[in-house]
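Why should sequence recovery work at all? Because a backbone constrains its sequence more than one might expect. Tight turns favour small or flexible residues, buried strands favour hydrophobic ones, and helices have their own preferences. The token representation captures these environments compactly. In the example below, the structure is given first.
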């Protein structure tokens, strides 16, 4: 196994606020976006079991 360490600075931003924040469990999206320097954002969502959506490109 490699002895080299690799560190990455990534950020996850919730994008699912549909206007009312998290006032009710059913009224917000589980969508979020992962970003890192030098690459395009990666859209994501929670697993459908947790009210997320399947995202397709």
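From this structural description, the recovered sequence reads:
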């Amino acid at each position: 196994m490699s002895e080299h360490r690799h560190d990455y600075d990534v950020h996850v931003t919730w994008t699912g606020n549909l206007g009312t924040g998290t006032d009710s469990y059913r009224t917000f999206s589980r969508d979020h976006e992962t970003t890192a320097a030098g690459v395009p954002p990666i859209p994501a969502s929670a697993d459908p079991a947790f009210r997320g959506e399947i995202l397709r490109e």
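A few observations help interpret the result. The longest strand covers residues 10-14.
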